[in-house]
């Protein structure tokens, strides 16, 4: 309800008629919106706000490096495009490509390249500051502003704030991102919940990469595709929430065993595609818990746990992926266990 109010205010403010990115409907991502939360959940509700390119501009995603698929970052290149046909139809924007700089300066606001970009690339930190200003100026026009108190929290790559009303309070983090084509894969301003740690807590002997991220780097996320998968299976299960109760068992009761919530979630999603959905009944709860444990044991023994989205032929057709993501060789999330015998022995002892 809050995000829909923001969207209406953004639209009324004429954002879509400016030369800034155009916010679309927000998408809830992470455990809070999927219906489960690990014990160490930070209490933050994260929503992803897709950004479309403004008139006269186009977004192009460029892969920054040939790193592992699950840790890729992109740059969002901004290109000016011809709008002469729109002008001929009576629309006002001048064409950035075919009108003189003097005429553009006199009659039209600056292009996105001149406001939120570093060179030709959309800058995350500049976009975050613009988005913060947009949310801040919109708040007093929101119906929620009459009963809730809003306090912004510092963040250079997202818009984060706390809402309070009496003894009630909640923290919201609005991430923003760009969709890859028409798919459910996005590049986002900040790593999402599941990307903030390794698939397991067993540390490899390989040196870890620095946490520094360039202001033009947008990490890739599969959070929307995973949320759609959970929605897909919930519609078919005899007990809609049984799989989420299984996930809560492992992420909460077994906290401290060394397996991250990301590992349990990945294993559960694989089991949901191998065990018939008709068998997820309340009376079979204990058996499904054992299926998840057995699947994890097989993955540990083989030192191989496949990424759930990339290269998964069992993924429901309603989840849209870029063609390259369906054809790619499935990524092994337990590769570090294959490289590090000590970490593998520790993982087996923990199991």
UniProtKB/TrEMBL annotation:
Q: Transmembrane as a keyword?
A: yes
The membrane topology of this protein is: Single-pass type I membrane protein
Where is this chain's protein located in or outside the cell?
Membrane
Q: Which domain of life is it from?
A: Eukaryota
Please give the chief subcellular localization of this protein: membrane
Pfam families recorded for this chain? Answer: Mab-21_C
Q: Which family does it belong to?
A: Belongs to the ITPRIP family.
The UniProt entry, under PANTHER family, shows: CELL FATE DETERMINING PROTEIN MAB21-RELATED (PTHR10656), INOSITOL 1,4,5-TRISPHOSPHATE RECEPTOR-INTERACTING PROTEIN-LIKE 1 (PTHR10656:SF40)
**Under what name is this protein listed?**
IPIL1 protein
Q: State the species of origin.
A: Irena cyanogastra
């Amino acid at each position: 309800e809050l995000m829909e109010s923001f969207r209406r205010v953004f639209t009324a403010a004429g954002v879509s008629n400016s030369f800034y990115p155009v916010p679309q409907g927000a998408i809830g991502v992470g455990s809070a919106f999927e219906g489960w939360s690990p014990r160490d959940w930070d209490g933050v509700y994260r929503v992803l706000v897709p950004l479309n390119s403004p008139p006269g501009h186009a977004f192009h995603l460029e892969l920054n490096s040939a790193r592992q698929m699950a840790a890729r970052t992109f740059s969002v290149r901004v290109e000016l495009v011809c709008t002469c046909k729109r002008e001929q139809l009576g629309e006002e924007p001048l064409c950035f490509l075919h009108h003189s700089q003097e005429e553009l300066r006199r009659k039209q606001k600056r292009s996105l390249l001149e406001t939120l970009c570093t060179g030709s690339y959309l800058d995350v930190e500049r976009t975050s500051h613009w988005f913060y200003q947009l949310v801040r100026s919109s708040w007093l026009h929101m119906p929620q502003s009459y009963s809730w108190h809003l306090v912004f929290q510092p963040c250079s790559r997202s818009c984060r704030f706390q809402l309070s009303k009496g003894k009630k309070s909640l923290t919201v983090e609005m991430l923003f991102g760009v969709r890859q084509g028409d798919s459910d894969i996005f590049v986002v301003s900040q790593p999402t919940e599941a990307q903030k740690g390794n698939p397991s807590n067993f540390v490899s002997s390989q040196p870890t990469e620095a946490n520094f991220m360039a202001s033009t780097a947008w990490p890739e996320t599969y959070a929307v595709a995973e949320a759609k998968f959970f929605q897909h299976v919930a519609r078919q299960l005899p007990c809609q929430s049984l799989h989420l109760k299984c996930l809560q068992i492992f992420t909460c009761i077994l906290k401290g065993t060394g397996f991250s919530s990301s590992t349990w979630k990945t294993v559960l999603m694989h089991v949901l595609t191998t065990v018939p959905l008709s068998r997820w009944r309340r009376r079979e709860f204990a058996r499904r818990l054992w299926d998840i444990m057995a699947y994890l044991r097989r993955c540990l023994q083989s030192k191989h746990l496949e990424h759930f989205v990339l290269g998964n032929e069992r993924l429901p057709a309603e989840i849209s992926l870029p063609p390259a993501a369906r054809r790619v060789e499935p990524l092994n999330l337990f590769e570090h266990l294959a490289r590090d015998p000590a970490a593998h022995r520790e993982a087996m002892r923990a199991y």
